[in-house]
Amino acid sequence: MTSPDAPQFVLPLVVRIEKDAPPARTDALETAARAVLTLLADERAGTGSDGEDGEWARAVRDWQDSRIRKVVRRARGAEWRKASALPGITVTGERAEVRVFPPVPLDGWPKELVKLQVSGTDLDDPEPPAAADPARPVLWMSPELEMSAGKAMAQAGHGAQLAWWGLDDAARAAWRASGFALSVRTADPARWAELAASGLPVVRDAGFTEIAPGSCTVVAEHPALRYGSVQRG
Asked: Which GO MF terms are attached to this record (predicted)?
């Protein structure tokens, strides 16, 4: 276990929000979750078959050995272009664009990102999203909590990461081959109680922002985890 005095790391995500063309909320949440998975599966974030670490592997290990904290900031125009020039991965959804960066120390953000706004990031769905496809993973958001879009994007990323940790290599490979297909939906209140008690991976927030510590924010329902699931965190 990491010492409480060890440096804390955070995973930065930046969502592109242009004034005249903001993404829909659900699209942004799903894209953020896929961005986290894309980074986790990237060869630069792990150890290769030759036993050599990728260039991001040490930072990812340091981050995962502590809290898997994520911070979502927003950018547009020149800010987005500067962020896009930094090492990272841009993942696109229907209209959403999210760039994920290798973990950084909590007090060591790149200067191109440190000035980006973190609070007040909110988005709307112009119409209710379609029902989730039960054949693919669903990240169920709590119906009991109000969160900004930025906070909800981070929570969706946590849920995707807990699901990833619970899968074996074959299931991970299949998910990756699908382009990390997934849905993010808000659970019906009655269904939420069932999901939270199901044994599926549950995200419990550390309480740094917006909501109380220990709040259950997301349940990750992956088909491969519906029976005999594994939980971490």
From this structure: hydrolase activity
CA distance readout (Å), 191 to 19, 30, 42, 142: 36, 20, 34, 10
Find the radius of gyration of the CA atoms of the chain: 17
pLDDT tens readout for residues 37-56: 999 999 999 988 888 999 99
pTM: 0.92
pLDDT at position 1: 41
